[in-house]
Write a structure and sequence with these properties.
Length: 349
């Protein structure tokens, strides 16, 4: 390894520098990608697999009792009413809670315990939002905090409140009197949400024939590749590609400088393949030095990001694959030059 550097010091150092910058870019790209993957995995663990958003258009106001009656035949899925404002006496803010009209499944939430049902005059709330309160009051009615969600670990539940529809309309009996449309979400992890939607539609036709309901699919799981190709990774990939381009140029120059040696080797019986393998091994040694230096530098800059073994393994695999790709790409043009170089040129040069 060091013999290669000693014999071709200038080009070798330039190759190491180019690949060092390439692997630093790659390191940052892999760590940021793994972070995104980890976040998405956590979020997807606590989202419903199936979801339909529906809009109910009303020709006349509907009472809370009629709205709850619409859900009487829904025996699967959870049905939640959207965009219902809520103000707590102790917290100076207005929230839009999940108002549960029907619960047939446990809530899909990052909770320390399974939440099979929501107790009467109880709330599920995020830890930061309740600000240490054990109870909250709404219009003078006291609610217990049945379950507290850790929104520091799981930021996607920040500002989340879940309340029973019966409790909500007990406090705000006239909240939907003037509304001409209502927005509901149908959630499930194991059942057909459209079956529940059809039952609501049928009940609505019987209860209010002039009303209508429409639905649209809602994507509940993020595509992991959206995280992989975020803005930061595009920059890192661009830097890696730029470093590879520079290395291809340097590798070609490195081979041209050694054309006399290569021609003599061919004259003494070396095949094109054996020469390419020899130079690839030497190039791999230089790339290996660059990878080690970049890993040490990267770890020193962001040690906390790879303490988890689960994150380190894919990172190591990514580096090994990248090193192999780098060698192959860097040797494409030099290999063509080697194939065209004649043994007789060793005498001329």
């Amino acid at each position: 390894m060091f013999a290669v550097i000693k014999r071709y010091s200038n080009v070798s150092v330039l190759i190491i520098i180019c690949f060092f910058s390439a692997f630093i870019a790659l390191y940052n790209g892999i760590t940021s990608t793994l972070q995104v993957v980890h976040t998405i995995r956590e979020k997807n663990e606590y989202v419903y697999r199936n979801q339909v958003r529906a809009t109910i258009f009303l020709p006349k106001p509907i009472s809370p009792q009629e709205l709850l009656m619409l859900m009487k035949d829904v025996d699967t899925c959870n049905v939640v009413l959207d965009n219902m404002p809520l103000y707590f006496d102790q917290i100076d803010n207005v929230f839009n809670p999940e108002v549960v009209l029907k619960q047939n499944e446990p809530f899909s939430l990052p909770s320390s315990e399974r939440i099979d049902s929501l107790k009467k005059f109880s709330l599920i709330a995020s830890e930061t939002t309740i600000k240490g309160n054990k109870k909250l009051s709404i219009n003078g009615i006291t609610f217990d905090i049945q379950n507290i969600l850790d929104d520091k670990t799981y930021p996607f539940v920040n500002n989340l409140f879940i309340i029973n529809g019966e409790d909500y309309f007990y406090i705000f009996p006239n909240r939907i009197d003037e509304q001409d449309r209502l927005y509901i979400n149908i959630y499930s992890n194991k059942n057909n949400v459209y079956s529940a939607y059809t039952k609501i539609q049928k009940s609505l036709e019987e209860l209010i024939p002039e009303a209508r309901i429409t639905s649209s699919d809602v994507i509940t799981r993020e595509n992991i590749f959206e995280g992989v190709f975020n803005q930061d990774n595009v920059i890192f990939i661009g830097l890696f590609a730029f470093a590879l381009l520079n290395t291809i140029i340097l590798s070609y120059y490195w081979v041209v400088v050694r054309r006399h040696e290569i021609a003599i080797r061919k004259a003494f019986g070396y095949t094109n393949f054996s020469v390419i393998v020899l130079l690839s091994k030497e190039l791999f040694q230089l790339i290996f030095i660059s990878a080690i230096l970049s890993i040490i530098t990267g770890i020193s800059l962001s040690f906390t990001q790879i303490q988890n073994f689960e994150k380190f393994v894919p990172m190591a695999i990514g580096f090994i694959i990248a090193m192999g790709i780098a060698v192959i790409i860097s040797m494409i043009i030099p290999a063509v030059y080697i194939l065209n170089l004649q043994p007789s040129e060793g005498v001329k040069l």
